[in-house]
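Quick one, probably user error.
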């Protein structure tokens, strides 16, 4: 672990940092864009940082092609790419320049050149790249909750008692995007038939904190959405945001969600066994949310670890390690870069060793 003095000394190097996004307009609005912009904001408090667009030219933001024409490689900037399907193309364009991949989802199918660091936002994604490129520098910086969730979320705290049942106008909140057909077409109607106040949020909401604060139970079932997309749940902020607002969370347990959700403790599995079982448990949670909420102490620890202050400290540490790696030639294309053999080659070498070992035993027996 690097000390604080080392971090401060090296934070003046590998400057500036350029965070690449396709654009910042409504057509690109999603969790990935929010995380990229949040990352840029946190990094800007540590080093000179720019958001650079590469699909659409936008007022107030430099455009990738213009920057590359002005600056010859390798340049002084550290480039941060993150946009799933665009990553291979962007890394190719940035060849010869320091570049790191902030990995959200896994399963896109591409490989990374040797020496390209991976900064994963979840342990699920970290494990994926730890298997796929085990010789590349690997780091973990989970996504953090914006301060508004920590300050304004109406969750129970150790120094107060919350009476959710009498204060919340929505019994069950569901966000339409990423929700399974099961939740939308079977669970929601069943809950409404039993008299519960269910809201399915589908459009843009300016104040999500207030919306989540109004709900007793939050349902998030993204497993089928991501299985159908062929990639993974990169981090799963909505259930964490719901916990920050004191909701009882019913969620699928796919991919990165298990970084923060423990079934039966911080959340409860949705789509579990039968529709009747789901309805019964949600009705009980609405009637007595205190018995179904995450334990206050565990919730407070989870919120502390998810704060932007903690994320910023992690970025300081990772930037320091990236600088050391770059200084030792661990990020520049060269014959000295460590790299792992391909999967097919490893399998064939194992088969050859087994054949040779069997032949040796046969010879010895004669």
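Nope, works fine. Designed sequence:
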């Amino acid at each position: 672990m690097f000390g604080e003095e080392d971090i401060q000394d090296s934070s003046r190097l590998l400057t500036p940092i350029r965070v690449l996004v396709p654009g910042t307009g409504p057509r690109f609005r999603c969790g990935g864009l929010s995380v990229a912009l949040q990352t840029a904001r946190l990094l800007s408090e540590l080093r000179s940082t720019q958001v650079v667009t590469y699909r659409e030219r936008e007022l107030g933001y430099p455009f990738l092609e213009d920057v590359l024409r002005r600056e010859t490689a390798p340049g002084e900037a550290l480039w941060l790419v993150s946009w799933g399907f665009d990553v291979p193309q962007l890394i190719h364009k940035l060849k010869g320049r320091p570049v790191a991949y902030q990995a959200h989802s896994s399963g896109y199918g591409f490989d990374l050149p040797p020496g390209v660091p991976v900064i994963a936002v979840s342990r699920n994604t970290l494990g994926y790249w730890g298997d796929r490129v085990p010789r590349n520098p690997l780091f973990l910086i989970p996504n953090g909750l914006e301060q508004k969730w920590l300050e304004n979320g109406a969750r129970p705290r150790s120094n107060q008692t919350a009476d959710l049942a009498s204060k919340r106008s929505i019994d069950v909140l569901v966000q339409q995007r990423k929700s399974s057909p099961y939740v939308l077409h079977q669970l929601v109607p069943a809950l409404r038939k039993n008299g519960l106040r269910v809201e399915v949020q589908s459009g843009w909401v300016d104040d999500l904190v207030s919306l989540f604060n109004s709900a007793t139970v939050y349902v998030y079932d993204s497993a089928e959405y991501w299985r159908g997309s062929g990639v993974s749940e990169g981090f799963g902020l909505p259930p964490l945001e719901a916990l920050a607002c004191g909701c009882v969370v019913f969620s699928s347990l796919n991919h990165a969600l298990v970084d923060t959700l423990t079934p039966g403790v911080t959340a409860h599995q949705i789509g579990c066994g039968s529709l009747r079982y789901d309805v019964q448990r949600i009705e009980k949670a609405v009637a007595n949310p205190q018995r179904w909420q995450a334990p206050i102490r565990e919730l407070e620890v989870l919120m502390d670890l998810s704060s932007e202050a903690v994320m910023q400290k992690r970025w300081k540490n990772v930037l320091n390690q990236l600088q050391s790696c770059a200084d030792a030639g661990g990020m520049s294309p060269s014959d000295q870069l460590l790299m792992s053999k391909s999967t097919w080659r490893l399998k064939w070498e194992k088969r050859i060793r087994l054949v040779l070992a069997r032949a040796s035993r046969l010879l010895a027996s004669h």
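The CA atoms of residues 10 and 288 lie 52 Å apart.
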